[in-house]
Input
Amino acid sequence: MLTLTQTLILHVLTGLIGVMASYTVLMNLLGKRFSLKLLKISSVAAAVLYVISWLTGGYYYVIRYGVEVKPVIKAGDYPWAHSFFTEAKEHLFLFMPVVAIIVAAVVFLYGDTLNTTRSVKRTTTLLAFLVVLIGTFVTVSGIIISGSVR
Amino acid sequence: MYTFLIISHLVGTVIGVGAATFAEVFIIRDLRDGVIDPVEGDHLRMMYLAMRIGLVITFLSGFGFLLYYRLNGLEELLYQPKLWAKMTIIVALIVNAALLQSGKMNFKLGAGISLTSWYAALVIGSWREMPYGYIEIITGYVLLVIVATFLLELIKAHIIKH
Output
């Protein structure tokens, strides 16, 4: 069984590597040629890692953050770190596993024809970009929230 | 753990800075005849791969530091201006790579951003008591991007002419 510290580390690492995997998907889709194998691996990795990050983050929130960390932030110098960034982070994050699963499904179902059907490629690229964008915001929010615990 | 983070962060930065430098050296050398042949293209691809590997190591070890600060009661370090300036520059580097990949970035400016960002990350990371705030650092960085882009073009023009 993981300790709470290990859970937090796992939450951060899986989320971070997930964003890197989504960025790999995006970079592949942006190029004129792409490796379908790399696209499949990175899109599935992103979806799986976001689900793990979601579960570990949720567990940490319920057991430690809500009970011990949140009161400290709200009583400290940076209460907005919780009222804005934690709230935005936990709600925006919900899009990430769902959209990442859609991207992975498109890659597996239409990967062979992605280069010839431009509309599908454009939409998938847009979805991958959306995941990277939200992922970046969520990551930066995590740093802001962590820094406000004093 | 802290020593491991420092070593991996240094290794990642060294790989990135070295690859970014040699990518530019190779491009300037390869463009003397006006074309990049397949062998030269292979060398450049290797440099870009090394740059990506450097970025991944730097990125992961950088977040390792942030986690270390959080878990060891050093949270105040997470609000340092130089940390946020460095993160802004890394984001600029990543966005630049995506724009270059999609053909939406001017190649000359893209090269200037890439080279300056790697050196800026190296300098900011190794400058212990940096006396500048976030705005000053980013302003300096933007000015250096302009200077580096201009200088790279001057060097390329000079070498191609001779």
